[in-house]
Amino acid sequence: MTAEPIRDTSGQIGTVCTVRDLTELRQVEAVARERQSLLENVLESAREIICAVDPEGRIMWSNSAASALNGYEKGEMIGRVFLELIEEGDREMASERFRRVLAGEPQTLELRIITRGSSVRHVLMDTTPLVIEGRTTGVLTITRDITEQKQERERAAQADKLRALGQLASGVAHDFNNALAAILGRAQLLRRATRDAEIARNLDIIQTAAEDAAATVRRIRSFAHQSPGEEFAPLEVGALLRDANEITRTRWENDARARGLSYDVRLDGACGLHTRGNASELREVFVNLIVNAIDAMPEGGRLSIKCRVRGGRVQILFKDTGAGMTEEVRARIFEPFYTTKGMHGTGLGLFVSYGIASKARASISSSQTSRCRGWTASKWRAKSEGVARACPSSSLPAMARTPSARTARATPRTPSSASPSTLDR
Questions:
Q1: Is there a single domain that holds both residue 302 and residue 394?
Q2: Which stretch of DSSP H or E encloses residue 280?
Q3: Which of 145, 169, 194 is the last residue of a domain?
Q4: Neighbours of 350 (CB within 10 A)
Q5: Which of 73, 129, 120 is closest to 100 using CA atoms?
Q6: pLDDT band at residue 377, thresholds of 50, 70 and 90?
Q7: What angle do CA 165, 171, 173 make, to 5 degrees?
Q8: Which helix (H) or strand (E) segment is 424 a member of?
């Protein structure tokens, strides 16, 4: 109701009252508020992230699911450019898709976002233009966190690879053992018959390499089927490193010299340290690390191997002057059958090494210490069992025989395709 006075020259002579029935208006407003509240509750209750972005890429509104995922409060996100929340490697693609949506083309894309805690989450984003009165005023995005699903798919793919690996190992073991039996038998006969020290030394290398190869299929099958491994025994680390050096010597010395290349492989510091493990398995790991380091230096270079004790644990640091690897490659170097060498690699070397590390309650990783050619670092760390003797800094000495596992199953040693890694135990 509204009231207005009626006046003449003598003053107010009356009042005009106007009464309007607002019942229907208030009912409409109540319905509108109820619907708005319902819409807000629906949007806030959704597990998907729902955002409205203006044409400049700034967030105008988001629901609570966005804060739950990325760790930012709603007030912190309003006005922020959405590309700042996306992992740097995906920003160009996201920007291009955003332009397409503004042009009227809805898009669906998978990308990575960075949370407030700097962790990476994989999301699937559906985007569509916001059109009001025939004019595009922004972009609506509905985003789902698919990190767990992606990890589950990767685990399933890994399990399939492991099953295939077990079948492969079972299929080749018999035939490969026949060949190894002939190699070992002839090497042992020649070793007994010869009196020449140099020939005897080379035959020892052949026998050790053959015995290690005979254990490889068993280890692959053991890792694939998660069967219990052998008991660990005290081992001298320096002797295993010297074995690995001699096994790989033809690769980084003889073959390299024939191709006009030069590699400087050196063992520095104390090497008379002891740890516990399986000699054949640890020697396999060291061989793979050396081979990977040599492969990472196609034009020659230097490989430094240092062993020391820190905090009661043996540390063996492998450092090469190779070109290193990208973060994408480094993230996949322990996957079975992943290789960057094409037909020349099988992608089993570091995968097997990873299995050995897992069985020994160890970890294996890689680090790059230079932005250009520089150093790629690898480290083995295991519980120390004492010190036997010191070994001066020098080129690696001749091979020393250490106990090797003998087995009825075998597989060829396959160098990994990636740069060296860090194995912590």
A1: yes
A2: helix 279-295
A3: 145
A4: 30
A5: 129
A6: low
A7: 95
A8: strand 422-424
User: What distance in Å separates the CA atoms of residue 72 and residue 86, rounded to the nearest whole number?
Assistant: 13
Q: What is the pLDDT of residues 298-320, one digit of tens each?
A: 899 999 998 888 777 777 888 88
Judgement on whether residues 23 and 51 belong to the same structural domain of the protein: no
On average, the pLDDT of the chain sits at 77
Residues 121 and 264 in one domain: no
CATH number at residue 274: 3.30.565.10
Which domain-ending residue is among 109, 129, 145? 145
Q: Checking DSSP bridges between strand 363-365 and strand 422-424, what pairing results, if any?
A: antiparallel
pLDDT, one tens digit per residue, over 11-33 is: 767 777 888 887 888 888 888 78
Where residue 79 sits, what CATH number does that domain have? 3.30.450.20
Q: What is the rounded distance in angstroms from the CA atom of residue 108 to the CA atom of residue 94?
A: 10
Q: How far apart are CA 200 and CA 189, in angstroms?
A: 11
Same domain, 115 and 159: no
- Range(s) of the domain holding residue 162: 151-424
61 shares a domain with 22: no
Q: Give the residue carrying structure tokens 């250009």.
A: 372
Let me know whether 294 and 370 are in one domain: yes
Pick the closest to residue 86 from 14, 143, 170 (CA basis): 143
C-alpha 172/C-alpha 165 separation (Å) is 11
Report DSSP letters for 181-239, one per residue.
HHHHHHHHHHHHH---HHHHHHHHHHHHHHHHHHHHHHHHHHHHHT---PPPEEEEHHH
200 touches 194 (CB < 8 A): yes
